[in-house]
Specification:
Blueprint: E1 2-10, H1 14-21, H2 27-30, E2 36-40, E3 45-49, E4 55-64, E5 69-76, E6 81-93, E7 98-109, H3 114-136
Antiparallel strand pairs: 1-7, 2-3, 3-4, 4-5, 5-6, 6-7
Length: about 140
Amino acid sequence: MASTTTHIDIDATPDQVWQLIRGFNSLPDWLPYIPASTLSEGGSVRHLANPAGEAIIERLEKYDHAGRSYSYSILQAPFPATDYLSTLQVEGIDGGERSRVTWSGQFSPVGVSEDEITALFHGIYTDGLAALQQSLTK
């Protein structure tokens, strides 16, 4: 199983960051790669569309409002991976005046090397966190 993690420090309080990303249906609010999201199964499954129109279906596995984190798995996606589990977490730094957002994941490659799938998800996480930072500093 492969894994990757990355983080970004943002000039916003943890509450401000969490307010934007806490909703399992909120990706289109801050992630340009995901223009649409709809929920099903009582809000525990999100159906995403990427710019190419490919479906990505994810399940909320764990939600911790007090700890400002959630974890989700991928049920269907155009990625060469299985057994995907990812976590987004917001923590306070600098006395709570700023935030560190960490995005991590583990997954098993299918038809590609561990290095290739790790690079793919690391790029998605890094670009996503940069987009989040940009959304919060507008």
